[in-house]
Amino acid sequence: MELLSITLYLVGAVSGLLYYYLRRKFAYWSDRNVPYVSGSLPMGSFNGMGSKKHFVEIMTPVYEQYKKTHTTVGMFLCVNPLLLATDLDFVKQVLVKNFNSFHDRGMFFNERDDPLASHMFSIEGERWRFLRNKLSPTFSSGKIKYMFLTVREIGLEFSDSFEPYLEQKKPVDVSAQAAMFTCDVIGSCAFGLNCNALKDGSTKLLDLADKIFHPRPLQMVWMLLLISFRELAVKLRLKQTPADVESYFVDVVRKTVEHREKNNITRPDFLQLLMRLKNKGTVDENEEDSNETITMNEVIAQAFLFFFAGFETSSKALSFALFELAINPEIQEKTREEVQRTLAKYDGLITYEALKDMTYVEQVVNESLRKYAPVGQIVRIANEPHRVRSPDFTLEKGTMVMIPVHSIHHDAEIYPDPSRFDPDRFTPEAIGGRHSHSFLPFGDGPRNCIGMRFALLEVKFGIAQLLSRLRFSVNEQTQVPLRYDPKGNVASALGGIWLNVERV
What we know:
four-stranded mixed β-sheet, 52% helix, alpha+beta
């Protein structure tokens, strides 16, 4: 009886302390007189994310409610305070003007125990600056132009992969086809690997990518907990990367590097540049060797980032663009006419220069990125206290700031009738008439997407390659209007994007 009493007392004491802790945590914004969305366990202000709603579907109503009255609004990620930006001038401050106060993303990384998560997207401070400066030349116009030859070779396999659907008159899930195309492109351009996803209909890398970009609800909660309590998570030696993903990817990269170094093999790809940075401290052959090199684990981490981030976001951008072209046949025809007109000037060949001349294709891509931004939010951490106006308070060091990209892209005051697909929103005149930070599919400022130009080239090429040969229309299997898959870390159409296809 005495033991039971002690147990009940301890349970009551612990429950009381937990209640007080949570009450104080969730009172954070009210204590500072900042308007806020209330929070509760386990996901704070984002309960239902990953099971009932996609991340952006939770943020957009909050953005719409407060954008006219406040530059920011408080939310909670698990129990931690998060500040949602609702004003484009404040967005510009965070990403560009006051970048030194917001130079980190606040993502989880554990270099000792989880090497694949310790890549340039996540790491912080001087190590990030070092890698960014060293790797930026990797995506110069010259190097991208050289890698484009590989993109064009795989492009023939891409258009040929539609032949079975043409012959059998069956609809095709273009989101799956686009994923196989970008997987083959990135696999070759990054590592010199022949993934053969288009030929085989799948590949091990695609299966692993599905684990990363479509986590189960419990995995999503785990990822948020790692971000929310990352210092503790690192001390406990916790990991974000699934064990089978790490094992496969580490093995592939290590063996490829060892094989090249042992046999003195060089290839014009991203991995070769990382190897040079590991051995010489520079990616440029014309530069003198440097003592500042990177480790093998850092080589693997950057390769992991380039592959998975590069192929998934590009494939989604391409598949959403094809959907909009299919459901808007007049825009599809206008786009095809530009492709055919441009190809006539370049002897029927899609060259690097030909793609640069396809300005309407670029408008189509940009409008697709507006409507379906692959990553619907940008996150930054306050690296030092920062004064915020309206409401007037001091943002504490370590507080997360979130920029709702999807919400901004669907703001009717910026883009009238935002659900309508209109490439003319991206003529030079239309762009000049909007706020500089009203279009953010790749972020902005010193920490924007380093592979942006390569991704745009890949998507433009995919559209030009297919439209020059094929015509698309929407199949009844596609859910119209499209709905986002709640489980997707990036924008994904629930049920796929099924299109009818015929020869031009």
